[in-house]
Model the fold of this input.
Amino acid sequence: MISRRSAATLRDSPNPAWPEILNLVTDAPVQVEVVPTDSTSGDAALEAMQVTTASFLGALAGECGAILIEHGWLRILGAGAQDLPGLHEVNRLSDGPPPFLEVAWDVLGGRFAINGGGLNAPPGEVCYWGPDTLDWTPIGGGHSAFVSWALTGGTTDFYDGLRWPGWKHEVGSLSSDQGLSLWPPPFTTEGRDLAVVSRGAVPLSELHSFYGDMARQLPDGVDGSSLEFKFTD
Done:
């Protein structure tokens, strides 16, 4: 039987990553909020994840509830706080090593995950599941590179085609567990322009469920193009 390390052991690193993350937060060219957590929650997340605080993943799990980027457009998961679940809760680690480890959610229902063998990407690479493609796409690099990318303004270009005038106020008014439901959805021809679609606040869990259902109904994804919906009375 493999012995599990305690939170104290996992925190006992000569080179913790949290100061490096805080430096990135301080120098970030975009709006960033670090959501605090308490030591009990951080310890629980670390012990469930079994990663040390020398890694970005362990530092986030042990030292913060989450990091919200660009008014909450992107939520990098930590120990959990403000209605956001922790990394250990999202990934149900009690069931064994997952095929991928979700590490961040965006306001549109998109998800970032570390490939654990279940995605078409090198092991350890971060992939993005988009509501416009209904599929996982490798973005290049591992978790620490992903966090660094997000905190140095990478989201600005990444989401350029999925934003609309006034999005900052609209996204900033949401709670941490809410996202925006788009209708028509962004994987359709009619849903390509987010400035003209209907947008409404819904729980992120509902968004994830909806897009998951769509992906199962369209098992080949949308191949980089959009579908055309026909609406009837």
Q: What stands out?
A: The mean pLDDT is 91. Residues 204-217 form the longest helix (14 residues).
